[in-house]
Each structure stands twice: as C-alpha cells, then as structure tokens.
TrEMBL record:
It comes from the Bacteria. It comes from Lentzea sokolovensis. Residues 1-24 form the signal peptide. Keywords: Signal. This is Uncharacterized protein.
Length: 67
C-alpha cells in the first residue's frame, strides 16, 4: 500500500512540474522587423528569389574556376 501511495504522490509531483510552465505569465513578443527584406535576394514572387538566383548562377563559374 505504501508503494502505491508513494507512486501516486511521485506521479502527481511530476505532473505538477510539467504543468508549472503553463501557469507562468504570458510573454509578449514583438513582430519581427521585415523592413529590410525587399531586396533582390529576398523578394520571391514565385517562391524563389529569381533575381538573386540568376545572379548567383551567372557568378558561379567565377567561384569554381579561379582566375
């Protein structure tokens, strides 16, 4: 009987420990600053930054074959 009571108390303490973060005060988070995300590397009308992709493909041989 003592083992059952001890197991119940221990499992209750564990569950109370898991529930404690839910009882904490909520944190207010500001919106991220996206004012600088409108350049050619981040503008993606089709889901891919087209102008940045084209420029990186054109410049790729310069990085692969040294001058």
């Amino acid at each position: 009987m003592k083992k059952i009571v001890a197991a119940a108390v221990l499992s209750g303490a564990v569950l109370a420990g898991f529930a404690s973060p839910a009882l904490a005060d909520p944190v207010v988070v500001d919106k991220p600053d996206t004012s600088d995300l409108n350049n050619k590397w981040t503008t993606a009308p089709l889901g891919v930054p087209i102008f940045g992709l084209i420029e990186s493909v054109v410049k790729a041989p310069n990085f692969i074959i040294p001058n």
